[in-house]
Write a structure and sequence with these properties.
Elements: H1 4-19, H2 23-35, H3 44-51, H4 59-73, H5 81-95
Helix pairs in contact: 3-5, 4-5
Length: 97
């Protein structure tokens, strides 16, 4: 049997071997990645990907991309409500609205 301390060390050694990282650096990576979540629960990176804009897109570029995608995906026009919701959240995330 392994003790708790031995399991922790075994886990960290496997991380270092496989990923060159420790549990602490993985926690830091997770924190940094999810620190970017907006109040809408969507990372800015994902919002940019959905709208097809860069992270430094202007308000005008974001709104143009939003309108273009919503014309295609609006539920009243036969589009998916799920996709429309994602597009709306992406716009809100990037504009901070």
């Amino acid at each position: 049997m392994y003790s708790s301390a031995n399991l922790h060390e075994l886990f960290n050694s496997l991380l270092r071997e496989k990923w060159g990282a420790t549990n602490q650096s993985n926690n830091e990576h997770y924190r940094q990645k999810h620190e970017d979540l907006s109040r809408y629960g969507m990372p800015k990176e994902e919002a940019c990907e959905i709208l097809g804009v860069t992270r430094h897109a202007s308000k005008e570029e974001i709104n143009q991309a939003f309108k273009k995608l919503m014309l295609i995906n609006h539920p009243d026009k036969g589009g998916s409500k799920y996709i429309a919701d994602k597009i709306i959240k992406a716009r809100q995330t990037l504009l901070g609205a």
